[in-house]
From TrEMBL:
Residues spanning the signal sequence: none
Lineage: Bacteria, Pseudomonadati, Bacteroidota, Cytophagia, Cytophagales
InterPro entries hit by this protein: Amino_oxidase (IPR002937), FAD/NAD-bd_sf (IPR036188)
PROSITE patterns to which the protein is assigned, alphabetical: PROKAR_LIPOPROTEIN
The organism's place on the tree of life at top rank: Bacteria
Species annotation: Hymenobacter jeongseonensis
Record's protein name: FAD-dependent oxidoreductase
UniProt domain Amine oxidase: residue ranges: 15-427
């Protein structure tokens, strides 16, 4: 095989690897994607149970204004279904308050007479932040100097009450980081995305996103159940022992796996140090998603609003009712309840489920004790940790013919995975 007829080998069929393959294929370059898993999508997967529930592996949404998502997806074919903008917030005293369009129409949402969240200056500060993010492009916000998000909010002047009852439950759920230690440039970007777009899921579940990209690639260009053991220059050694030679190699796995695959690439210690020095962030945020099923009407009342828990120390951080948003998530006559718990609790699945039942019964009434536990997903490396000072883009070219992409090479978002995949494709095409 001449080097131009050899495919570009992409290790990993998550959103980054698939985006890279999509842009290369559109430009006429042969690609071969290798993935260890039994389906495409990486962290974006949906399981269907024998009863007909669709379970996304962790609560996850597409923000429809993500620039990279708009570039690459056919939204019409995905039949996107949107959550209503806003949230129902359970306060520490057990009362609930509903905020509709809090970022898109801040004054009307927060200034409802009954809203116990935020003082008048707090509400005006939301308006001011909305104006600020609308003045910038997404890229400009990501490039801004950063502190951690909590410090950013405090410096902006928001009261502790506003931070604890709105920002921590809402953005702590987005970052899987209740303490808001995540870098503020990413907060500004995400805030803008909520102001300008919607939070949506494809009608048939989140896995439709990677499936749409994979379906546009030539048959046989995606090999599943094919774990890669090492990457050495433009050669890939499979776990089976087979060695494949590519025109170039793109490592599109998670950060820890990439470090492991690349560490031995020349077999000497210096090279290992070089890999470390090039920056491979591998720390990650943990989340657990517990699904319950109920008969009859949805406990979410069909309002398509996310439930957020502002109670300190609670296990149930956010609750959603996916079938209220897209009916295909549950069989007819049944409803699905998705409950997310962020961070490490050192509980077994049975202990967590029992603890959640107690909290959900206090929140949604005693019927919650009868909800059927469908499945739990514990996802130790759901999002890469992204702290102040981390570059918004790590170097994506590692050596001639050797590249990397993925959210861990940028910031924790689908947008980053898709963007780094495209950027590597553009480097290869240049
Ligand atoms: C619960 C949860 C909620 C989230 N919520 C949101 C959200 O609301 N909005 C948002 O924008 N983002 C969200 N994200 C983040 C988003 O899913 C990720 O940023 C994105 O999917 C990362 O894609 P990736 O391609 O970089 O990595 P991955 O999806 O991790 O893909 C890596 C791929 O590499 C493969 N692989 C690993 N090792 C090997 C090997 N040795 N050989 C071959 N293949 C290998 C894996 O099987 C996988 O397919 C969430 C993530 C999770 C888990």
């Amino acid at each position: 095989m001449t080097s131009s007829s050899k495919p570009i080998i992409i290790v990993g069929a998550g959103m980054a690897g698939l985006a890279c393959a999509t842009w290369l294929h559109r430009a006429g370059r042969p690609v071969l994607i290798l993935d260890a898993a039994d389906a495409v999508g990486g962290r974006v997967r949906t399981d269907t149970t024998p009863d007909g529930f669709r379970l996304d592996r962790g609560f996850q949404v597409l923000l429809t204004n993500y620039p990279e998502a708009r570039r690459i997806f056919d939204y019409g074919a995905l039949q996107l279904k949107s959550f209503r903008s806003g949230a129902v917030i359970r306060l520490a005293n057990g009362h609930e308050t509903t905020l509709q369009n809090p970022l898109q129409r801040p004054l009307s949402a927060f200034s409802a007479l009954t809203s116990p969240i935020g003082s008048l200056p707090d509400k005006l500060r939301i308006v001011s932040l909305v104006r600020h993010v609308l003045k910038h492009t997404p890229e400009a916000l990501l490039a801004r100097p950063a502190t951690n998000t909590l410090t950013f909010l405090q410096r902006y002047g928001w009261s502790e009450q506003m931070i604890n009852t709105f920002f921590k439950p809402f953005f702590g759920g987005v970052f899987l980081d209740r303490e808001l230690s995540t870098a503020s440039n990413f907060f500004e970007f995400v805030f803008q995305q909520f102001v300008t777009g919607e939070a949506a899921v494809p009608a048939l579940g989140m896995q439709q996103l990677p499936e749409q990209l994979a379906s546009r690639l030539p048959a046989n260009s995606v090999q599943l159940n094919t774990p890669v053991a090492a990457v050495e220059g433009t050669r890939v050694r499979l776990k089976s022992g087979q060695v494949l030679d590519g025109a170039a190699v793109v490592v599109a796995t998670d950060g820890l796996t990439a470090l492991r695959l690349l560490a031995g690439r020349s077999g000497n210690a210096d090279d290992g140090c070089m890999v470390q020095a090039t920056g491979f962030p591998t720390a990650a945020r943990l989340t657990t998603c517990t699904y319950f099923a109920a008969d009859g009407n949805s406990p979410g009342r069909g309002d398509k609003l996310l439930r957020l828990n502002a109670t300190p120390g609670a296990l149930a951080h956010n609750v959603s009712f996916p079938a209220d948003v897209s009916a295909a998530y549950a069989p007819s006559g049944r409803s699905l309840i998705s409950v997310s718990t962020h961070g490490e609790r050192s509980l077994t699945e049975a202990e967590l489920t029992a603890g959640l039942r107690d909290e959900l019964a206090a929140w949604f009434g005693p019927a919650a004790r009868q909800w059927e536990h469908v499945r739990s997903y514990r996802i130790p490396a759901a999002l890469p940790v992204y702290l102040p000072g981390q570059p918004v883009r790590q170097s994506l070219k590692l050596a001639d013919g050797l590249y990397r992409c993925g959210d861990w090479a940028a910031y924790p978002s689908l947008n980053a995975a898709l963007a780094t995949g495209r950027e590597v494709a553009e480097m290869l095409l240049a």
